[in-house]
Amino acid sequence: MTTSEQQAVPVAGEARRVALVERIGTIADLACTTPLTGGLGDVAYAAAFPDGLKPIATFRTDDPADLERAKAVLSREALTRFFSPGGGGMSAFTDALATSRSQHEGAGR
User: Fold this and answer.
1) Angle 69-70-74 (CA atoms, 0-180°, nearest 5)?
2) How far apart are CA 109 and CA 104, in angstroms?
3) Which pLDDT tens digit goes with each residue over 64-94?
């Protein structure tokens, strides 16, 4: 990219880039054994999780139907299917979690 092309990047693009860098930093921080210290960590977490951390799904281990729902979306086979080429990736995974949640709620649990 030439200097003139770089200067033509809109402000919105720069804001998006900054947000992406912050999110990547947060993900790296979550995966790292030595998290960000001080204000940097606080800012990154607050930006990524404005309502605080929440589970992506909950399942009851004392309910066989819940265990089957968990296996359908969290087993090695399911995750391999979602994240293999043509498997739909994160959107397929989150769709499966949403479907699992609605099945759970529809069963009156």
Assistant:
1) 130
2) 6
3) 988 888 888 888 999 899 889 998 888 898 8
Other Cβ atoms closer than 10 A to 13: 10
Q: 80-100 as b/e, with b when 16 or more CB fall inside 10 Å?
A: ebbeeeeeeeeebbeebbeeb
Count Cβ atoms below 10 Å from residue 26 Cβ, excluding itself. Answer: 20
Nearest to 30 by CA among 89, 22, 76: 22
Instruction: Determine the length of the chain.
Output: 109
Question: What pTM does this model have?
Answer: 0.47
- List, for residues 48-65, the tens digit of each pLDDT value: 778 877 777 788 889 898
